Amino acid sequence: MDHFLYKNGVLHAEDVPVPDIAAAVGAPFYVYSTATLTRHFKLFDDALDGMEHLVCYAMKANSNQAVLKLLGDLGAGMDVVSGGEYRRAKAAGVPGDRIVFSGVGKTREEMELALTGGIRQFNIESEPEMQLLSKVATELGKEVPVTIRVNPDVDAKTHEKIATGKSDNKFGIPISRAREVYAQAAALPGLKVIGIDVHIGSQLTQLEPFELAFQKVAELTEVLRADGHEISRLDLGGGLGIPYERSNEAPPLPVEFGALVKKMVGHLGCEIEIEPGRLIAGNAGLMVSEVIYVKSGEDRDFLIIDAAMNDLIRPAMYSAHHDIIPVTEAAPGAEPATYDVVGPVCESGDTFAKRRVMPAVGPGDLVAFRSAGAYGAVMSSEYNSRLMIPEVLVHGDQFAVIRPRPTFDEMINRDTIPSWL
Ligand SMILES: *Cc1c(COP(=O)(O)O)cnc(C)c1O
Question: What predicted TM-score, i.e. pTM, was given to this entire model?
Answer without folding.
Answer: 0.97
